[in-house]
Amino acid sequence: MPSKPARPAYFPTLAAERPDIAMCRASAYLARAADAHATRHGLGVGQHLVLKMLDAVGPCSQQVLSEELRIDRSVMVSVCDDLDRSGFVRRERNPDDRRSYAVTITGKGRERLAEAESTVSSYLEETFAPLTASERAQLTALVGKLMQL
């Protein structure tokens, strides 16, 4: 029985020529991995990030959360709605600007965040396993530079 001809391995050539395409594909891969990780803890990636930021910096408006986390404003509304319904955050009128709401993490939200964060290091280790620690640091620095963080 004749064997199938080998498929050409075109993507490595394309990725070398077009770093934008390579980054888009890597981003899609990482987004799927991050979503699977967050889902195991009953959160979406956006929800996890919102809880993490609120825990780190304190109450914020949805607009600030949206801008800092680079999540579309309309998506942020549904993320905060879901977190509010789950009891992970509460929204209160912002005392400094009565037209906006301050989003605050709750004790229940901190517990869920701690649960999700407890597995982040193993998730990152697994996801970035092909890279050495030095390469991961270099990648982080380069992406940060690209994003002007």
TrEMBL record:
Gene3D superfamilies of this UniProt entry?
A: Winged helix-like DNA-binding domain superfamily/Winged helix DNA-binding domain
Q: Name one GO biological process term.
A: response to stress
Describe the location of the HTH marR-type domain by residue ranges.
Answer: 16-148
The source's domain of life comes to Bacteria
Q: Where is the signal peptide?
A: none
Cite the InterPro entries for this sequence: HTH_MarR-typ (IPR000835), MarR/SlyA-like (IPR039422), WH-like_DNA-bd_sf (IPR036388), WH_DNA-bd_sf (IPR036390)
Q: What is this protein called?
A: MarR family transcriptional regulator
Which species is this record about?
A: Actinomadura montaniterrae
Q: Provide the taxonomic classification.
A: Bacteria, Bacillati, Actinomycetota, Actinomycetes, Streptosporangiales
